[in-house]
Design goal:
Blueprint lengths: L7 E6 L4 H12 L4 E7 L8 E4 L2 E6 L11 E4 L3 H13 L3 E4 L28 E3 L3 H17 L1 E10 L6 H15 L31 H14 L5 E8 L7 E8 L5 H7 L18 H25 L15 H6 L1 H4 L8
Helix pairs in contact: 3-5, 4-7
The structure holds NADP nicotinamide-adenine-dinucleotide phosphate (NAP).
């Protein structure tokens, strides 16, 4: 159990990633009482300096001693890292809040959305999981409706941005957009198909039941968070060529009658998490992401070239041909746009 303090030593594991960067930004923006921030990532990023509250924090690789003296560790470095390192961190006495899918369905680990089931945090054993991004925003809407009218069935379709796949996916969208607008063949690396000017109607692998793993995460996690295994859900997840901001369309069937206006009122202003506009609504947000993605892409290519000169295989994403060139040809019209659209 975390002792109450005036301020905490906080670690971000995966600090250089898309989610890690947002965690650091949010700690700063909310003025969370941080006495010291520790940033961890892979060996590749060791020594990089990250900004926090006007200062710089050095990125460290993980070791068995990394978590000594840390109160709270926010993990966002992928499931394998969480499986390996979250128990090490918990054993060192810090509370892990894990953003990956490694511990979500473990019966010993609470799966928590603060606006929905904060009470489940009690009794944690050092690791608290948070759910998939699409589940989070859905259960915030479902919970008050379930409390009022009991939900029988939900049909949900998602429109998910590339930020959910990570920094490399954001770079890929930026680079492909630039390539296509410059009438070049798009370089395909993170996704199995071109993502710029396209929609990919499945996320993660297909399972035996015909749903994808992403879709089944939303089914299973929702039932665990809502504490009700009888809620029936059918989910379709789609990846969209948008840097940030997931959207969802829900069709909800309730046991007791609930008018649309009553449902809207339940979802209305004043509830935590329901009134703030998402990132994509910030003016210029997508342009900023495109610039950042292209800059990061350049940085990766330069690093890859540097390794090349030492005679080792390149680490970055070299030029690759897409598996389906018809998709590239399908956007030829975009290539006819005047070059100044890139200004
Ligand atoms: N719950 C949610 O809402 C939600 C949403 C999106 C993503 N996620 C999850 O969050 C995690 C990270 O996603 P992301 O989008 O931030 O990915 P990302 O942009 O690819 O970042 C991955 C981070 O993990 C670090 N990392 C990789 N290998 C490592 C290692 N061996 N040791 C230590 N650090 C290592 C990377 O460091 P380098 O820069 O050094 O490679 C980077 O900081 C994933 O598990 C993802 O599924 C959850």
């Amino acid at each position: 159990m975390l002792a109450k303090k005036a301020s905490y030593v906080v670690a971000v594991v995966g600090a250089t990633g898309a989610v890690g960067q947002e965690m650091i930004f949010t700690l700063e923006q909310r003025n969370f009482p941080v006495s010291q921030l520790r940033c961890f990532a892979s060996e590749r990023s060791a020594g990089r300096m990250l900004e926090f509250k006007g200062g710089k924090v050095k990125v460290e690789p993980l070791t068995m001693d990394s978590f000594r003296g840390i109160d709270i560790a926010l993990f966002s470095a992928g499931g394998d890292r969480s499986t390996q390192w979250a128990p090490v961190a918990a054993k060192s006495g810090c509370v892990v809040i894990d953003n990956s899918n490694a511990w979500r369905m473990d019966p010993e680990v609470p799966l928590v959305v603060p606006e929905v089931n904060p009470q489940d945090i009690k009794g944690h054993k050092g690791i608290i999981a948070n759910p998939n991004c699409s589940t989070i925003q859905m259960v915030v809407v479902l919970k008050p409706i379930h409390d009022k009218a009991r939900i029988k069935r939900v049909v949900v379709s998602t429109y998910q941005s590339v930020s959910g796949t990570g920094m490399k996916a954001m770079e890929e969208l930026g680079n492909q957009t630039a390539e296509i607008l410059n009438m070049k063949e798009p370089t395909i690396s993170v996704y199995p198909r071109q993502i710029a000017f396209n929609l990919l109607p499945h996320i993660d692998v297909f399972l035996d039941n015909g749903y994808t793993r992403e879709e089944m995460k939303m089914v299973n996690e929702t039932r665990k968070i809502m504490g009700d295994d009888t809620i029936r859900l059918t989910v379709t997840t789609v990846r969209t060529p948008v840097f940030r901001c997931h959207s969802e369309c829900l069709n909800i069937e309730t046991e007791r009658k609930l008018t649309p206006n009553e449902a809207r009122a339940l979802r209305g202003h004043g509830r935590p998490g329901q009134t703030r506009l998402p990132h994509a609504h910030r003016r210029g947000g997508q342009g900023r992401d495109l610039r950042r993605a292209r800059a990061r892409g350049r940085e990766h290519r330069e690093r890859a070239e540097h390794v090349d000169r030492r005679g080792q295989p390149p680490q970055g994403r070299g030029p690759q041909r897409g598996p389906d060139r018809r998709e590239a040809r399908g956007v030829r019209g975009v290539g006819r746009l005047p070059r100044r659209v890139m200004a």
